[in-house]
């Protein structure tokens, strides 16, 4: 099934491993995001259905791989990843499947958007209340992905897996240049209002960021 792709979620809160986020930002810096945003509505994104295989022992294996996002987006082919809504649906189906005795989440994900993660984690928690539900970190199980895994009955990992990396990335859209072009005041990093309306504007506690990225580490 295909669906109309939304713009890649450039703003909002991400719970993602820091190095993975920096690599993604390096890719984004090479893209004309203004032109991309204008064309995003016409982009058709293949809906990556999440299906599971059932082993002879009755274990449903569900893969959670790549960045986790709630909705399909226009850079799906570039970054890959998984929709949390579809993953939650697969877990719910496995929980209700009489042929499934247990569930194994095979995770290789640096994290993703906070939007949709709580719902997916809740689905894992409900599954674990009904059937043994295990999370296995094959390589990365970070931030939002670890949030999801933490709701399983047990967490397992291979010897080289990166597990944890709890933190938040908040991406802020810097509109100061646009505001100045329209004659509006913009704040510098000291909170002082600059621009054509500086005399009429009040001092603000907000400041424009030197980069459109702010990090909070847990």
Assigned CATH architecture of the largest domain: Alpha-Beta Complex
Q: List low-confidence stretches.
A: 1-5, 191-218
Q: How many strands, what sense, and barrel or not for the largest sheet?
A: 6 strands, mixed
Cα(first) to Cα(last) distance is 38 Å
Helical proportion, percent range: 25-40%
Strand percentage lies at 25-35%
Number of E strands: 16
Counted up, domains total 2
By CATH reckoning, the class of the largest domain would read Alpha Beta
Average pLDDT over all residues:
75
In N-to-C order, the SSE pattern is EEHHEEEEHEHEEHEHEEEHEEE
- How would you sum up the global shape? elongated
Secondary-structure topology with pairs:
Blueprint: E1 2-4, E2 12-16, H1 18-28, H2 33-39, E3 44-46, E4 53-54, E5 59-65, E6 68-69, H3 76-79, E7 82-83, H4 84-96, E8 102-109, E9 111-113, H5 117-130, E10 133-142, H6 144-149, E11 154-157, E12 162-164, E13 167-171, H7 176-181, E14 186-187, E15 193-194, E16 213-217
Parallel strand pairs: 5-8, 6-7, 8-10, 10-11, 10-12
Antiparallel strand pairs: 1-3, 2-9, 2-13, 4-5, 13-16, 14-15
Helix pairs in contact: 4-5
């Amino acid at each position: 099934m295909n669906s109309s792709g939304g713009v890649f979620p450039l703003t909002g809160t991400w719970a993602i491993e820091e190095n993975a986020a920096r690599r993604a930002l390096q890719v984004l810096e090479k893209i004309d995001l203004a032109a991309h945003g204008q064309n995003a509505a016409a982009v058709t994104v293949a809906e990556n259905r999440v299906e599971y295989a059932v082993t002879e022992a009755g274990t449903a294996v569900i893969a959670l791989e790549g960045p986790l996002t709630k909705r399909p987006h226009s850079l799906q082919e570039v970054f890959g990843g998984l929709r949390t809504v579809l993953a939650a649906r697969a877990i719910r189906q496995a929980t209700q499947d009489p042929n499934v005795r247990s569930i194994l989440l095979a995770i290789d994900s640096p994290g993703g958007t906070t939007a949709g993660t709580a719902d997916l984690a809740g689905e894992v928690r409900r599954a674990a209340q009904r059937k043994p539900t295990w999370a296995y970190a094959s390589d990365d199980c970070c931030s939002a992905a670890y949030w999801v895994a933490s709701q399983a009955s047990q967490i397992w990992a291979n010897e080289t897996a990166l597990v944890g990396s709890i933190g938040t990335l908040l991406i802020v859209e810097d509109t100061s240049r646009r505001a100045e072009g329209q004659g509006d005041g913009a704040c510098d990093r000291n909170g002082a209002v600059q621009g054509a309306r500086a005399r009429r504007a009040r001092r603000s506690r907000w400041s424009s960021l030197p980069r459109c990225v702010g990090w909070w580490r847990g």
